[in-house]
Amino acid sequence: MRKIISASQVKLADSDCLVSENISSHELMDRAASAFVGVFRGLVPDKNTPIIILCGTGNNGGDGLAISLLLQCDGYDDINIVIIPTGHRQSDDFAYNMQRVKERQISIHQLERTSLQDFDGLGLRLTESVLIDSILGVGINRPLDRALAEIIKMINQQCKRVVAVDLPTGFRCEGELDDDGTVLYAHEVISFQRPKLNFFFPESAKYMENFHVVDIGLREAFLAELPSDYYLIDSADIEEIYNKRKSFSHKGNYGHALIYAGSAGKVGAALIATEACLRTGVGLATVCLPEEERHALYARLPEAMLGSSEELFEGVKYSAIAFGPGLGRRASFLSDLFKKANAPLIIDADGLNYLSKEDTLLNALPADTVLTPHMKEFDRLFGPSENWWQRLQLARRNAQKFKITIVLKNRYTFIITEKGEVLINPTGNPAMAIAGMGDALTGMLTSFIAQGYSPREACILGCFLHGRAGDRLRLEGHAVVLPTVLLTQIPLLLGELKNVPFA
Ligand SMILES: NC(=O)C1=CN([C@@H]2O[C@H](COP(=O)(O)OP(=O)(O)OC[C@H]3O[C@@H](n4cnc5c(N)ncnc54)[C@H](O)[C@@H]3O)[C@@H](O)[C@H]2O)[C@@H](O)CC1
Ligand SMILES: [K+]
């Protein structure tokens, strides 16, 4: 897992790198510039594209200058640099690179003061150029000065393509994203070493479209020591957590899941959750559906068993219980389930809605429970929040208080563990925004828990592979991904893990 670090920790990591490698800060800046250009070339392959580089006078601006030198060497032949004063003095690395740029044939426009009128007077071809934003990076320490904000608002109206260095100017790396704040909108952000935490919040869509992360060689061992509660899941975690199926193993080794789901008109939710559970490798799955709906189950999923409420817990020990998809009024069984449940619960959809109406039940949630709310379900459960930052902090407090895992679903799903850590899932895409997708995830999480993974491990595996399956189909050309189609990918993805699923 990759630790997400704060703006102030980035500076510590930069300093550590200079000392541990015995390099100068402008050498590190050259590295950052070179990593930036590596991605930029792919984004803007046409070397005749007019490029405007807006530089502040701190180190983010220094990056912009170093980038201009590399782009010129690369053959980009229409580069204009504009220097916008930020702060009272230039940083040393800015000044160093300014000297180098002056020795080259690159046009530099120096604003003597930050003013919209002066900026406008430069007559830049903003609409037809690619703009590189290196005005401010992690050094922002106050709301944008008024004159700078005015310039940025004008750029936002005119520029069609902006590539930001490290982060968009005006964007806060962590904490609440200010709704009224001015930010230079970036179509692409090329961020150094780690994405910034706020890239993962839905509100960031107002300020940026895509981001790329480039390695600038900061010391991973140093980053690992920095305190942080935020982590980004990556494919190495999946390889590490997933266990291959052993030879001589049988269905009894892979758990028995109970799926308590479905009601008249909503049987599909139960079928999707159960199919997901089976395709993720559970040994046995019992579904508790209304008796009159049983034919759908037999027709669609002959591998599953049907159970009725009365006999469910007679002599059966489940290893995980999913509760909620498509349940409707049947969700009132939740209070009884708490008394009878003999396995970790995964509560979704109507199960969550019932829980929010009977909030005394929250205190009675059994150990190892996983809740899988989307934003509205979360707000109904724990109360409204003004923004996603507040919502995430509320989730952390509740996960710790009730000793549960919360899977807060979104473009980037946040897995909040009972210790209050936040694990961010990077996979998934808008083609997956369709009914039944959450039921598929619930089935997958239930399957992994039934197979013996801890709730934390199961949520990492389930969320990542669910999104990855959708990403693969999107790449193959599916504009929309149906949950039942997504599920066909799961055994294939498991089969591809380095740790192949057979001994
Ligand atoms: N050795 C390093 O420290 C490295 C730094 N790098 C780059 O350096 C950036 C950080 O550089 P700095 O710490 O110099 O900070 P920035 O360049 O982000 O900004 C600092 C300057 O902006 C001014 N400023 C702050 N808030 C402002 C506001 N609201 N309105 C107007 N001016 C404002 C400050 O007074 C200061 O002069 C990173 O984002 C990254 O791009 C990279 O080159 C990697 C190596
Ligand atoms: K920037």
From TrEMBL:
Cofactors, names only: K(+); Mg(2+)
Gene (name only): nnrD
Function statement: Bifunctional enzyme that catalyzes the epimerization of the S- and R-forms of NAD(P)HX and the dehydration of the S-form of NAD(P)HX at the expense of ADP, which is converted to AMP. This allows the repair of both epimers of NAD(P)HX, a damaged form of NAD(P)H that is a result of enzymatic or heat-dependent hydration.
Organism per entry: Albibacterium profundi
Cofactor: binding details: Binds 1 potassium ion per subunit.
Alphabetical UniProt keywords: ATP-binding, Isomerase, Lyase, Metal-binding, Multifunctional enzyme, NAD, NADP, Nucleotide-binding, Potassium
Similarity field: Belongs to the NnrD/CARKD family. In the C-terminal section; belongs to the NnrD/CARKD family.
Binding site for K(+): N60, D133, T169
The protein, known as: Bifunctional NAD(P)H-hydrate repair enzyme
Residues reported in the UniProt entry to bind (6S)-NADPHX: 59-63, 137-143, 166, 269, 326, 374, 439
Residues the record lists as binding AMP: K409, N410, R411, Y412, T413, G438
Assembly notes: Homotetramer.
Domain annotation YjeF C-terminal: ranges: 234-497
PANTHER family reported in the protein's UniProt record: ATP-DEPENDENT (S)-NAD(P)H-HYDRATE DEHYDRATASE, ATP-DEPENDENT (S)-NAD(P)H-HYDRATE DEHYDRATASE FAMILY MEMBER
InterPro entries hit by this protein: CARKD, Nnr, Ribokinase-like, YjeF_N_dom, YjeF_N_dom_sf
Lineage: superkingdom: Bacteria
Domain YjeF N-terminal residue range list: 10-224
E.C. code: 4.2.1.136, 5.1.99.6
Swiss-Prot/TrEMBL catalytic activity: (6R)-NADHX = (6S)-NADHX; (6S)-NADHX + ADP = AMP + phosphate + NADH + H(+); (6S)-NADPHX + ADP = AMP + phosphate + NADPH + H(+); (6R)-NADPHX = (6S)-NADPHX
